[in-house]
Structure formats: structure tokens, C-alpha cells
Design brief:
eleven-stranded mixed beta sheet, 13 helices
């Protein structure tokens, strides 16, 4: 299936030096993918020339004169930069010219502009940020990761439904398991928000596992872990910090003296395999679920290797028809409730 993706080429810490090479690598990997490279035309074309490439049928440049900075206020990005690369890329999705948008730009601005331009799917009150995390069994999806600091129980239910349809569509799992993040597995644990959300999930038709704790995320206890954006963002940032710390410790210990350096050489194949398994770049690309269009948020510091994974995520979601599946599921639930 042919898929056209709009790339916010100016977003992120590295801009065109990452986004354009990633798009070019995906052109070689997938012959059915094409791109709309959105941003300052001169900067994009300069990067294409550096790579020995030119625009063509599968690679078009769409000029946008403004850039949303990584630390820019959301209101300023919304009102003052209507010709930003981020806004133009999202407009291309809203107008049907692209099937998905990928951006490494300002998360708050991306969420706000996407919601304003694309609107919400029927039956969904709020968008949620969902991403993959590695586990002992493969990977699990976790949401929300920061879009909604305060959530009602109904919102947590909607998150579970949306992500369940995402996993079912993209990975072909007919009944993905859903866990609700809590401070304990016992029914008596948790605040009223979590307890009420648990009741709603049990009666929703989801394959609801029940409560899961923080360590269950990396055990792979469930296919999906649902929480509010405050808890999810803290869990994600803690995980990223832990990986960085372990990597630093390993480098320090193996570089301590000649003997440890030799031991490091002997252990290099194991270290390389370990690094590959926990490499956060392979899990880059968070889905902004609930919108009437596919928007993928790449990490701002992503390199070209990582950004390509975000593009793959966008292509997978476009091909799987996840938006239609979420809409159908919400319609069934609404009919059952009336």
C-alpha cells in the first residue's frame, strides 16, 4: 500500500541534518513510501544536494517559512506561526495530501496544533501519547506519557480502547491485554480515579488484566499499560535516566584500567547485544492517539537512525487503518451504552 508522509524537517534539536537523511533511508527501504519534506526550502534542498539527491515524484519539498522552537510557548506557536513547518505538515494531513505527519519538534505545540487542525475522533475526549518500551517478552505500549496531567476515569478507559485498537491493527493481536498502572495489584489499592477506571475497563469488553505495578512494565505483564500523563511521563523519564546511568557505569568500569579494558574487549559481543536490546532509538516514535489523523512524535534529540523508526511507525499506522478501527470501536461502545 502506497503511503505519503509529511515530515516536519525543521523540528527537533538537529533539524534537516536528521530528518532529511532519515527520509532518504526510508525511500530506499520501502518503495511504496513517498515524502513531503516541509520546511525552509533552501535548507532542505541544501541537505538533499549534500546527499546527492534531488526532489522527484516520491520526494517533494513544501516550503514553510517559520520554525517552532523547542522551548517556544504553545500559545505563541499556535497564534504567531501559522506558516511553521510543524503547522504546514499537520495541515497536509488534515487536507488529505498526506496520510501521516512525523515531527521531532516541541511536544506541547505539536499536540496543541494537531488537536486544533485535525480535531478529535468521535467519542474521544482527549488525545494521548503512546509509545513502545522494551520488556523481557518483547515490548509493551504505555500511555499517556504527558498529554494529560489530570485525567478522569472515562479518559483512562478511552486510552485503553484506543491503544487496544492500535495494537490489534498494527501487530495483529486480536485481544491485546490491558493493564492499569497502580501502586499495588490488590483491588483495595489506588485512588478513586484508578478504582473507577478499573470498574469501567472491566465492563468495556477490553481484555483487561487488572492492576499492574511499575515493575510489570518491563516484565511485559501486559501488552498495554494505561496511566495518566503525569505518572506516565515520570515513569518514562525515570526509565531514560536509568538507561543513561547504566551505560555510564559500564563505560566507567570497563575503562578503569588496562585489565578492565581487556575484559571489555572480551565482553564486547555481549555488551553490543545488550546495547542493541535497550537502545532507545529503536523505540523512537510516539503516537498521538485520538486525533482525526496520524501524528507521530519523535524524540527531539533523535539521530537519523532513530528518526527513521518514527517514520516506520507512521507508515505502519497508516497502512493498518487504525483510525477507522478506533472509530468503529467507539461507535459500538456508544451504541451499547444507549
Amino acid at each position: 500500500m502506497a503511503v505519503k508522509v509529511a515530515i516536519d524537517c525543521m523540528g527537533g534539536d538537529h533539524g534537516v541534518h536528521v530528518t532529511v537523511p532519515a527520509a532518504l533511508s526510508m525511500l530506499k527501504e520501502d518503495p511504496a513510501v513517498s515524502f513531503l519534506l516541509v520546511g525552509r526550502q533552501d535548507a532542505i534542498e541544501r541537505e538533499l544536494r549534500r546527499a546527492g539527491q534531488v526532489a522527484g515524484p516520491r520526494l517533494k519539498v513544501v516550503h514553510a517559512s517559520e520554525v517552532v522552537e523547542m522551548d517556544e510557548a504553545v500559545a505563541a506557536a499556535m497564534r504567531g506561526k501559522k506558516d511553521s513547518s510543524m503547522r504546514v505538515a499537520i495541515n497536509l494531513v488534515g487536507g488529505g495530501e498526506a496520510a501521516a505527519c512525523v515531527s521531532a519538534g516541541n511536544t506541547g505545540a505539536l499536540m496543541a496544533i494537531s488537536r486544533f487542525v485535525l480535531k478529535m475522533l468521535p467519542g474521544i475526549d482527549r488525545p494521548a501519547i503512546a509509545t513502545l518500551l522494551p520488556t523481557l517478552k518483547g515490548h509493551t505500549y504505555v500511555l499517556d506519557l504527558g498529554a494529560n496531567v489530570n485525567c478522569e476515569p472515562e479518559h483512562l478507559l478511552q486510552f485503553g480502547i484506543m491503544c487496544s485498537e492500535l495494537v490489534r491493527s498494527v501487530e495483529g493481536k486480536p485481544r491485546p491485554t490491558v493493564g492499569l498502572l497502580n501502586i499495588g495489584a490488590e483491588e483495595s489499592k489506588g485512588n478513586e480515579q484508578v478504582k473507577r477506571a478499573s470498574e469501567l475497563m472491566r465492563g468495556s469488553g477490553l481484555n483487561f488484566h487488572g492492576y499492574v505495578e511499575g515493575d510489570d512494565i518491563y516484565k511485559g505483564t501486559t501488552d498495554i499499560v494505561v496511566c495518566d500523563g503525569f505518572v506516565g511521563n515520570v515513569a518514562l523519564k525515570t526509565s531514560e535516566g536509568l538507561v543513561q546511568m547504566l551505560g555510564t557505569y559500564l563505560r566507567q568500569e570497563f575503562g578503569r584500567n588496562l585489565i578492565t579494558k581487556l575484559a571489555g574487549l572480551v565482553a564486547l559481543p555481549v555488551i553490543s547485544a545488550f546495547k542493541r536490546r535497550v537502545d532507545h532509538r529503536r523505540y523512537n516514535g510516539a503516537s498521538l492517539l485520538g486525533l482525526r489523523g496520524i501524528v507521530i512524535k519523535s524524540h527531539g534529540s533523535a539521530d537519523a537512525f532513530a528518526f527513521a523508526f518514527a517514520i516506520r511507525r507512521a507508515v505502519q499506522e497508516a497502512r493498518s487503518g487504525v483510525l477507522a478501527h478506533i472509530t468503529e470501536r467507539m461507535a459500538v461502545i456508544h451504541q451499547s451504552a444507549t
